[in-house]
TrEMBL record:
InterPro entries (UniProt xref): F-box-like_dom_sf, F-box_dom, FBXW2, WD40/YVTN_repeat-like_dom_sf, WD40_PAC1, WD40_repeat_CS, WD40_repeat_dom_sf, WD40_rpt
Origin: domain of life: Eukaryota
Keywords: Repeat, WD repeat
Source organism (scientific name): Pristionchus entomophagus
Stretch list, region Disordered: 1-20
UniProt repeat feature WD, residue ranges: 202-234, 247-286, 293-332, 333-374, 376-415, 421-460, 461-495
Protein name: F-box domain-containing protein
Pfam families for the chain: F-box-like, WD40
Species classification: Eukaryota, Metazoa, Ecdysozoa, Nematoda, Chromadorea
Length: 495
């Protein structure tokens, strides 16, 4: 509101009546209307009009003395009516014609004020608390902050489940502290968009790190030194050793990992897949290899577990579907003409999407074991990483580009390159995505964060001294591995 014009509490409001502001016109009409009503409706007698006119000629002291005597002669009912009338005049004249020049909210109903404030962005809403006590009281209404938390496109977390868990953290006795919940969410959102984070470096591998997994406070990494290392970020915060365990079992480079709760799957250049039990407590540990799967005839390059089945891709140009219960190969999907470098498995829909050195992206139905769609020459070189959601397929390549494809038609939706979109200038090694962002890594030693819908670059993270081979992330952290032999934790929750 910007209200112009001024009238004193004793003025006639002529300046305001000529104003173009409809709110002020309504205010003046309300004030003058009440005066006209009290003159005409009562139908004052000639004697009463004479007394009224005489009062106008009195000075302020005499007028006040006469009114005090008149009030003493009034009964209780008349005094109550006069009290209501005085309140109305006070609001209509003082608050509307004078004070509303700074604060129109004084006379607006509470629901209307909430509706007006609901159009403000979070920063403006916080600034509005400094206007007055009234604004502070209204701007802290939980419904405003609940509305911001429930916005469909802004200030989101990685998934609906994560949002539900975050709200539960600020719930007590059936009520939610919506302002605090949104405050945490906004701080994370702002940090992600500005690249504001703390960086911790995890040392331990003797050679390059080629795969990582992140599960809460637990990080697992695989390397060309043939080992798998487990890191507990919570242990570091508690002052204990960060490196929890080192898993030995593969005889060649550990190329891929997938961690789900306490089950870890690893694939290696020794052609094998191993399943590890990662369960542990303060008193005991049962971490160890529980099963080795043999079937591929070349390097195992990628894998992903579901609840009952696991899919793996290999340099032998095939994908294999495995039973996690028996360890047996259920079926083999053949169709790629070169090494399968990446894949994603959605067990609920029984769909697999894969990318290969043959520049092709294929979609498979695991119920029929058939290739249902192929995007030939999707990139100018090998497809190195791939992700999909309900609407699109995301792919990265040796050609340094990230592309988005319509999952139903295979039509190219968007290309993120280094020229037009400030993309990567080296081979795109890995990409991950959630409900609103993409995180990618490349041989240009950077990790980049993108808006999923628009493809806009949000921030670029630089701290590795060699190509970044792999990334994983959640709402608070990114974990990345590199040829520089380190794992880095980029924490957006501590700033």
């Amino acid at each position: 509101f910007q209200l112009r014009g001024m009238v004193s509490s004793e003025g006639d409001g002529s300046d305001l009546r000529s104003s173009s502001d409809p709110f002020l016109k309504a205010a003046v009409a309300s004030t003058n209307g009440s005066s006209q009503m009290n003159g005409s409706v009562r139908g004052l007698s000639d004697r009463a009009m004479m007394v009224k006119n005489s009062l106008r000629d009195f000075n302020e002291e005499d007028r006040l003395a006469v009114m005090e005597d008149l009030l003493r002669d009034c009964n209780i009912e008349s005094l109550e009516k006069l009290s209501t009338f005085i309140s109305l005049i006070r609001v209509s004249r003082s608050e509307i014609t004078f004070n509303c020049l700074g604060d129109p909210f004084i006379v607006l109903p509470h629901p209307i004020i909430l509706k007006v404030l609901s159009f403000l962005d979070p920063v403006s809403l916080c600034l509005s608390m400094r206007v007055s006590r009234l604004w502070l009281r209204v701007a802290t209404d939980s419904s405003l902050w609940k509305g911001l938390c429930n916005q469909s496109r802004e200030y989101r977390m990685c998934s609906p489940a994560a949002e539900k868990a975050q709200i539960a953290k600020f719930s007590q006795d059936g009520s939610v502290r919506w302002k605090e919940a949104f405050g945490e969410r906004f701080r994370l959102w702002n940090n992600w968009h500005s690249g504001r984070c703390t960086v911790r470096t995890l040392y331990g591998h003797k050679e390059g790190v080629v795969c990582v997994q992140l599960d809460g406070d637990r990080v697992v990494s695989g390397s060309t030194d043939t080992t798998i290392r487990c890191w507990d970020l919570q242990e570091e915060d508690a002052g204990r050793g960060l490196l929890g365990h080192t898993l030995n079992g593969h005889s060649e480079t550990v190329r891929c990992l997938h961690l789900v709760k306490n089950r870890l799957a690893s694939g290696s250049n020794d052609f094998t897949i191993k399943i590890w039990n990662m369960e542990r407590s303060d008193e005991w540990s049962s971490i160890g290899c529980r099963r080795t799967m043999i079937g591929h005839t070349n390097y195992v390059r990628c894998l992903e577990m579901g609840d009952q089945l696991m899919i793996s891709g290999s340099y032998d140009s095939s994908l294999k579907l495995w039973s996690l219960e028996t360890g047996e190969c259920v079926t083999t999907l053949v169709g790629h003409l070169d090494a399968v470098l990446c894949e994603q498995y959605r067990e609920e829909e029984r769909v697999v999407v894969s990318g290969s050195s043959d520049k092709c992206i294929k979609t498979w139905d695991t119920r029929t074991n058939m290739n249902i769609r192929s995007i030939h020459n999707a990139h100018d070189s090998a497809v190195t990483c791939i992700r999909m959601d309900d609407h699109r397929i995301l792919s990265g390549s040796l050609d340094r580009m990230i592309k988005m494809w319509d999952i139903r038609t295979g039509k190219l939706l968007k290309t993120i390159d280094w020229r037009r979109a400030e993309g990567h200038t080296g081979v795109v090694r890995c990409l991950q995505a959630d409900s609103w962002r993409i995180v990618s890594s490349a041989d240009d030693r950077t990790v980049k964060v993108w808006n999923l819908e628009s493809g806009e670059r949000l921030c670029t993270l630089r701290d590795h001294t060699d190509g970044v081979t792999c990334v994983q992330f959640n709402d608070e952290r990114i974990v990345s591995g590199s040829f520089d032999k380190t794992v880095k934790v980029w924490d957006f929750s501590l700033c």
